[in-house]
Design goal:
The complex is a heterodimer of chains A (308) and B (311).
Chain A (H helix, E strand, L loop, with lengths): L27 H29 L3 H7 L10 H10 L1 H32 L5 H13 L6 H10 L16 H25 L4 H8 L4 H12 L1 H17 L2 H6 L8 H12 L3 H21 L1 H10 L5
Helix pairs in contact in A: 1-13, 3-13, 4-7, 4-10, 5-7, 7-10, 10-14, 12-13
Chain B lengths: L11 H12 L4 H32 L2 E2 L9 E2 L3 H9 L3 H30 L6 H9 L6 H12 L5 H6 L12 H26 L3 H9 L4 H12 L1 H17 L2 H7 L8 H10 L5 H31 L1
Helix pairs in contact in B: 2-14, 3-14, 4-8, 4-11, 5-8, 6-8, 6-12, 9-10, 11-14, 13-14
Chain lengths: 308, 311
């Protein structure tokens, strides 16, 4: 949740595209000083994850005897142990069951709003955008009490929620995440849609295409790149969401993996190597997304800061 | 990065006029469809964000244990008085949130901007550096707190091992806030760098050339030419940092549920709902304080966005 404020704005004529000679070439001496500093900083920044990776493969008893600066004591047991003690199989499945529908719903609903905002100019357009964008920025804790109380009162049939209420159900998290994330997505998508040539809609109108067809068959295929970038971003954000899952879910077996960390703290923190293995397991899905879809991730974040 | 960069040249004014002309001929069915397209998402956001926001305001003037509606009692501004006078964690929490804000500005934000400015240059290995710095951005703050346990653990942590010290970095109320802030900075720096880098790419290259032709030094060029042009991005960064330090929650909750040196307003609200005592009115008053502070900055943010929209 902490990464949800992304920056929609524009400076001059933004091109996120790689510019030729960037902001100019630095002179040689200063350049090499900068390179050294950057290298040191970059290694420092990578260090925590590398350290976690390194120690996740080492035996607790070995590091206890030889200290953490030693080499050796290789094992895979930490992963096995962390996996079973942390019940990660279940929690990762929960995360999947929340993240996928929430991202799909967010993208679908925000593309609807974005289409109307981009395609038509109603007087309420700006107000509407404000309603969604401001929601994206409000601290979620400020809404906790009414949402919590309301969800406790909303009954759900048991096949939808074992607890019989909205509280403790995945539906609660899917809806809440969607409501919060729509603002950012609608904003980015509507800006993207505004760059589509208007002529395509004029000819669609002449052909008598309905609004729905203009949206679904004409616009949606054209905004696929933006949807891909946003999907990547939203998957990591909703997977990482901690607050709502922590407060709206009280049954241990229902937690998605990020908030499950809270319960694992007690049993893991006595064994740092186990913490390392657990951290790598939890980080792995987003790291994979990050490395495979890095371009999408970065363009998703910067999409908001460029405007067509 | 190139995939999602729409081109700039579609003339918007003409487009708007075209849209308006077409609208008049729209049939009932299309109008219903448009209504639903806007209506359904709006209902969701009003239901889960705006109504709860209003309800928080209303509840902040009441005393309620959350059970029967009949037990709800209107107490005026009593909750606010209690918070500021007899609620011990409140002022520490305010102080911590402020320290959080100042720290984020002074260190990671400045560093992130500096990194962006340097990486905006042609530089060998720029891609690698960028990846290194924004790698932590994809991790959740809860996980960051978990990972840093490897450094902060009293008996197994790296820091204590290197310095031969015996400090409980997460537990000692005098220092745990700083330990948490360092971990937060690890993630925050890359985030700011990314935003600023995107902004810098948008600065017209000719501005920079003109400055260097005039013989301005690089530092001067940045402060006198680039920084002023980046005004919207600077404001966005300001808003992000404020909102982030107000919303900070995950990492302190995972460490000790926001007690013992790690009190934050967001954690206090949560403690009053899912903690031992359910004091809804009291918690709501805390929530409203958060809302009021954030709304100032949300307004700034929206004004920037709307100004860009109208252009």
């Amino acid at each position: 949740m902490s990464a949800t404020t992304a920056p929609p704005t524009a400076v001059g004529t933004p091109r996120v595209k790689e510019r030729g000679p960037g902001g100019g070439v630095i002179n040689r001496r200063r350049g090499s000083v900068a390179t050294v500093i950057m290298l040191v900083l970059a290694i420092a920044w990578l260090f925590p994850l590398l350290w976690a990776l390194y120690n996740s493969f080492r035996e607790y008893s070995y590091t206890q005897v030889n200290g953490y600066f030693s080499v050796g004591g290789w094992t895979l047991d930490n992963y096995q142990e962390a996996w079973s003690r942390g019940n990660f199989g279940l929690h990762l499945k929960n995360s999947l069951l929340i993240t996928v529908p929430a991202v799909a719903l967010t993208l679908f609903l925000s593309s609807l709003v974005a289409f109307v905002l981009a395609r038509f100019s109603y007087r309420f357009n700006l107000t509407l955008l404000g309603v969604f964008l401001a929601a994206n920025l409000l601290p979620p804790q400020a809404l906790l009490i009414p949402v919590f109380r309301m969800f406790r009162e909303i009954p759900l049939p048991t096949f939808m929620s074992e607890s019989g209420t909205m509280l403790n159900s995945f539906w609660a998290l899917i809806f809440v995440n969607t409501a919060f994330q729509m603002g950012f997505c609608a904003f980015v998508l509507s800006n993207y849609m505004k760059t589509l040539p208007h002529e395509i809609y004029e000819s669609a109108e002449l052909d008598g295409a309905s609004v729905w067809r203009q949206y679904w068959q004409l616009t949606m295929p054209l905004v696929r790149p933006a949807l891909a970038a946003l999907a990547t971003l939203q998957v990591t954000w909703i997977y990482n969401e901690f607050f709502w899952a922590t407060v709206l879910i009280s049954r241990g077996e229902k937690f998605p993996v990020t908030s499950a960390l809270n319960n694992l703290r007690g049993q893991f923190f006595a064994d740092t190597n186990l913490v390392a293995a657990g951290s790598i397991i939890v980080a792995l899905p987003v790291l994979i997304v990050f490395f495979v879809l890095q371009k999408q991730f970065v363009s998703g974040l910067t999409l908001g800061s460029t405007k067509g | 990065m190139t995939t999602a960069t729409p081109t700039q040249d579609a003339p918007r004014v003409k487009k708007r006029r075209g849209a308006a002309r077409v609208e008049k001929r729209r049939g009932t069915r299309d109008r219903l469809v448009i209504g639903a397209m806007v209506g359904i998402p709006t209902v969701l956001v009003v239901w889960l964000v705006w109504l709860p926001a209003l309800a928080s305001v209303a509840l902040s003037f009441a005393r309620w244990n959350g059970f029967k509606l009949s037990s709800l009692e209107w107490v005026g501004t009593q909750n606010y008085t209690d918070i500021t006078t007899i609620y011990p964690p409140f002022w520490p929490a305010i102080q911590h949130n402020l320290i959080w804000l100042v720290f984020l500005f002074v260190l990671p934000t400045t560093l992130g901007i500096l990194l962006a400015v340097i990486l905006d240059r042609e530089m060998w290995g720029s891609r690698f550096y960028q990846t290194a710095f924004y790698l932590p951005v994809v991790l959740s703050m809860a996980l960051v707190g978990f990972i840093w346990q490897l450094f902060y653990s009293t008996d197994q942590g790296l820091i204590n091992e290197v310095f031969g010290s015996n400090v409980d970095w997460y537990g000692d109320p005098d220092i745990n806030l700083w330990a948490v802030l360092v971990a937060t900075a690890w993630r925050h720096t890359g985030y700011i760098m990314l935003i600023y880098l995107a902004g810098l790419k948008g600065v017209d290259a000719s501005l920079r050339e003109a400055a260097s032709v005039d013989g301005a030094s690089e530092v001067k060029t940045f402060f006198h030419v680039i920084f002023p042009v980046m005004r919207p991005i600077n404001l966005i960064v300001l808003v992000i940092v404020v909102i982030e330090s107000l919303r900070a929650f995950d990492i302190v909750w995972i460490i000790n549920k926001g007690r013992n040196g790690l009190e934050l307003i967001s954690a206090l609200v949560s403690q009053n709902v899912i903690g031992e005592a359910t004091r809804y009115g009291f918690g709501s008053a805390l929530a409203v304080i958060m809302m009021v502070i954030s709304s100032v900055f949300i307004t700034i943010y929206l004004r920037i966005v709307f100004r860009e929209e109208r252009r």
